[in-house]
């Protein structure tokens, strides 16, 4: 290979670092079912994995209204919180649907109130990248530097890839969260429903277990027998209610 055609070693390392970040992010969020927990994991992983980033935050909007924040360092959480004022790089990134960068806050004039608070908290550079989650939730991931002019174009590329990947993972978390809520509602309905509720009561009495565990036993039996849950319940109730021969 011609040496002039080879990528610089720093670029190669940057690609490997980004790949490792996305892999760790996927592993950290793949089974999470709580959106707030997912945001906390996201900002922690980003802070620890991206060089020169001192802290990381996430600003979320739901239906256009502030819907909470996550911060890798709680003392800097106000920088992501729109309740302290909407004039922030995160909201600018969300509104523009494009990445916003400010490598040196000493030279920054776009968000004077926010910039003063950031510098007082030891933040001197920021990259905010918009994150599309689903039709209701959008946000921005914010990478903060403790020194000016350390956030480079490589950090911008990392932020862009991180935002895109995080959007997909967070959308999946939201789906799992909704599915868990629907399952919880279904379980509550089943616990109160006629013959299924009776069957659950029978199992609770026989096994000395709580209602959710009894429902799980009933579901497992239905799956093993490949018959509807209600039919399993009816058979169980009929069996225990049938008079025994003396």
From TrEMBL:
Task: Identify the InterPro entries for this entry.
Answer: ANTAR, GAF, GAF-like_dom_sf, GAF_ANTAR, WH-like_DNA-bd_sf
The UniProt entry, under SMART domains, shows: ANTAR
Please list the GO terms describing molecular function.
RNA binding
Gene3D superfamilies (UniProt xref): 3.30.450.40, Winged helix-like DNA-binding domain superfamily/Winged helix DNA-binding domain
- Its domain of life reads Bacteria
Q: Where is the ANTAR domain?
A: 176-237
Instruction: Please identify the protein, giving its name as recorded.
Output: GAF domain-containing protein
The UniProt keyword set, sorted, is: Transcription, Transcription regulation
């Amino acid at each position: 290979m011609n040496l002039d055609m080879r990528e610089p070693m720093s670029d190669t390392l940057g690609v490997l670092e980004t790949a490792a970040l996305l892999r760790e992010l996927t592993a950290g969020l793949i089974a999470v079912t709580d959106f707030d927990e997912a945001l906390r994991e996201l900002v922690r992983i980003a802070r620890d994995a991206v060089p020169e980033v001192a802290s990381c935050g996430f600003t979320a909007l739901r239906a256009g209204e502030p819907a909470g924040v996550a911060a890798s360092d709680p003392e800097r959480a106000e920088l992501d919180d729109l309740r302290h004022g909407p004039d922030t790089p995160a909201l600018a990134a969300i509104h523009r649907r494009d990445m916003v960068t400010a490598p040196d806050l000493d030279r920054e004039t776009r968000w004077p109130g926010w910039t003063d608070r950031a510098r007082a908290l030891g933040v001197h550079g920021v990259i905010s990248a918009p994150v599309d989650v689903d039709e209701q939730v959008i946000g921005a991931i914010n990478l903060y530097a403790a020194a000016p002019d350390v956030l480079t174009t490589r950090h911008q590329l990392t932020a862009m890839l991180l935002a895109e990947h995080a959007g997909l993972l967070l959308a999946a978390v939201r789906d799992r969260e909704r599915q868990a809520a629907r399952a919880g509602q279904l379980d509550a309905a089943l616990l109160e429903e006629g013959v299924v509720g009776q069957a659950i009561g029978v199992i609770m009495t026989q096994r000395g277990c709580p209602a959710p565990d009894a429902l799980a036993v009933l579901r497992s039996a239905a799956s093993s027998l490949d018959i509807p849950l209600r039919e399993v319940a009816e058979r169980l109730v009929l069996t225990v209610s049938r008079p025994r021969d003396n």
